[in-house]
Design brief:
The chain is an alpha+beta fold. It has 17 helices and 18 strands. Among the domains are: 253-287, no CATH class; 357-405. The strands form 9 sheets. A two-stranded parallel ribbon has the order 1-14.
């Protein structure tokens, strides 16, 4: 982790840029953008050099720029907690070695960094490998669901596996899904459904690919399996997103996002699960409700003021994270949830394992599992003398496995075993300081005429309708249900930020589209640095777009796409203009 906190004065940066000037007969060095940082240039304001505002932007644009702490972290005296919290993101979780302990018994990955290479977006993969030497960079999360009709993207998640289906397990258990049986095929699109040509007027061509998954019933180590009773099962991929700037998104007021919903609902169809057009207000399912009495307790705002859970926005936090918009406030979703359910590391506000009854039942009835526990003897927490007669039978081991793995009974004070949460409140707090404290890299090349032209074209084509350029954060009195007292997180008060997203879902109608059809507009800030930070520049929800051009053209695959009119205009641009749009997107 390279710490670059604060923003250097523009004068100092200008001096550094000019200090390398040469005299005499030596050639002049190529001009950089350093001397323009913080200045209005062309159609860019001075503020746009700082996408995360003055409290959320790092000046670093090198290959570790996604890792930097925001100036807010430094100014608020949270650097120590940031560095310690970062370790929980980067290190592999183990079975029992403190402090990075608690992996499993089933898990999606052994570390956060595996899914977020270089702190960024997951990488394109030619196969699904979550375990082993090829796991790094695989940000793919499986979506396993029952389609409402054959071939449909829509349908409920299957109950036999978790919402984040697991393909890893610790000995002696078998993973809920055997990843060696997952078949991933990449198909080439022969033609655009919309009729747009796959060749631009100047002769340059592009190609589009999309993934298909098949997972046979034999891959599921659950009882019953998702295929039982003749049910159809379908699969989609959803990659991890980049995480720099997440805290800034968290700081956007809900009322501001509500106004954006109201504005867009006048000319576009929005997901009715989020927006009730007739009522002109959010639908109930737009909020994250999981705050039953006693589960998380009360919280504190950013000034340390006591906030009863029912008084925070009426007990509602607006969903704004992940492609599927399943998570709301960072403090009770997104990374806070992932550090628990990806590695299955328990903590006081998540005092249970992330498992299913179908997997627990299968493991309790698997002979190899019972035999292994019996051989391990008292070293295993599943070796329990239930009857107290000095002997442990296969039936008792089976009963203990079922009790400890079943989600309805695996609370810490169950009758079989009494153990403490694996991540303590202080460790989780430090992790959240890191998560909320990641900066956004500054913008680049805004002084370049091509980038300025690209910005104009981007706006003229209508791209900014969904990729809204800027927002202003509020007082950022976040809700902190799991912060255990008055400990504060990095705070971004009244910052003008430039994420280039409306934080609303739209439908692109791509081939083999995202589960549920609706997909959140991806923030574009900092994405131009993806390749140098992560090794790849893949885009879209399943990494199907290998570059910016492919990402744009996927938006126009179908005429039903909300973005089709913009893509149709883009397809008629000259190569010079297309390159300008790409350069703009890579610079912001």
């Amino acid at each position: 982790m390279k710490k670059i906190s604060g923003l250097l004065p523009v004068v100092a940066l200008s001096f550094l840029a000019l200090a390398c000037d040469r005299s005499g007969d030596e050639p002049e060095p190529k001009e950089t953008d350093a001397k323009y940082i913080g200045q209005a240039v062309g159609n860019f304001t001075a503020e746009e050099w700082y996408p995360g505002g003055m409290l959320g932007t790092t000046l670093n644009v090198a290959d570790d720029s996604y890792e930097n702490e925001a100036p807010a972290v430094t100014e608020q005296g949270l650097s120590r907690a940031f560095v310690h919290g970062e370790m929980f993101f980067e290190r592999n979780v183990t079975l029992n070695t403190a402090p990075f302990k608690g992996l499993g018994p089933a898990s999606v990955r052994k570390s956060c960094l595996d899914c977020h290479p270089g702190y960024g977006h997951g990488q394109w993969q030619d196969s699904y490998v979550a375990n082993g030497s090829r796991s790094y960079g695989n940000g793919y999360l499986l979506v396993v669901y029952h389609p409402v009709e054959p071939g449909s993207n829509d349908g409920p998640y299957v109950s036999e596996v978790t919402g984040m289906p697991q393909t890893m397990a610790v000995d002696p258990f078998l993973p809920p899904i055997d990843e060696s049986q997952i078949k991933m095929t990449w198909n080439i699109v022969p033609a655009m459904e919309s009729g747009l040509p796959m060749q631009f007027p100047d002769g340059e061509t592009y190609s589009l690919i999309y993934p298909e998954l098949t997972i046979p019933e034999s891959a599921f180590n659950t009882d019953p399996t998702p295929y039982s009773d003749g049910r159809q099962v379908a699969f989609r991929l959803e990659s991890t997103i980049g995480i720099p700037g997440s805290g800034l998104i968290d700081a956007i007021p809900q009322d501001s996002i509500k106004a954006q919903y109201a504005k867009e609902s006048r000319f576009a169809e929005l997901n009715p699960a989020f927006w009730d057009k007739a009522a002109g207000d959010f639908a109930a399912s737009a909020f994250y409700h999981n705050w039953q009495k006693g589960e998380y307790g009360d919280g504190y705002d950013a000034d340390g003021n006591f906030v009863p859970r029912d008084s925070y926005n009426g007990g509602k936090a607006l969903k704004r994270f992940t492609y599927a918009m399943t998570r709301a406030s960072l403090q009770d979703g997104a990374g806070a949830n992932a550090i628990w359910n990806i590695t299955n590391v328990s903590r006081p506000d998540r005092p249970f394992l992330y498992t299913t009854a179908a997997w627990a039942k299968k493991m309790s009835e698997t002979p190899s599992v019972i035999a292994s526990i019996k051989a391990e003897g008292e070293r295993s927490p599943y070796y329990v003398d239930v009857n107290g007669d000095g002997t442990v039978t296969d039936e008792e081991i089976s009963e203990a496995v079922l009790a400890l793995l079943s989600p309805s009974t695996n609370q810490f004070d169950n009758a079989y075993h009494n153990f403490e949460p694996e991540m303590d409140p202080d460790e989780f707090y430090d992790f959240m300081v890191w998560h909320r404290g990641l900066a956004v890299p500054r913008a680049r090349n805004l002084n370049d005429a091509a980038v300025q032209k690209g910005k104009k074209l981007f706006t003229d084509m209508g791209c900014a309708s969904c990729h809204r350029p800027s927002w202003t954060t509020g007082d950022d009195n976040y809700w902190a249900p799991a912060m255990n007292g008055t400990k504060l997180l990095p705070r971004y008060k009244n910052q003008k930020i430039w994420p280039y997203s409306d934080f609303i879902q739209h439908r692109l109608w791509m081939k083999n589209d995202i589960h549920g059809t609706w997909c959140r507009t991806t923030p574009l800030w900092g994405r131009g640095l993806s390749k140098q930070n992560t090794g790849r520049g893949d885009r879209l929800h399943d990494c199907r777009a290998r570059n910016v051009i492919e990402a744009i053209m996927w938006h126009g695959f179908s005429k039903k796409s909300d973005a089709y009119p913009s893509v149709e205009k883009f397809s008629r641009l000259s190569k010079e203009d297309r390159d300008a749009v790409v350069k703009f997107i890579e610079s912001i």
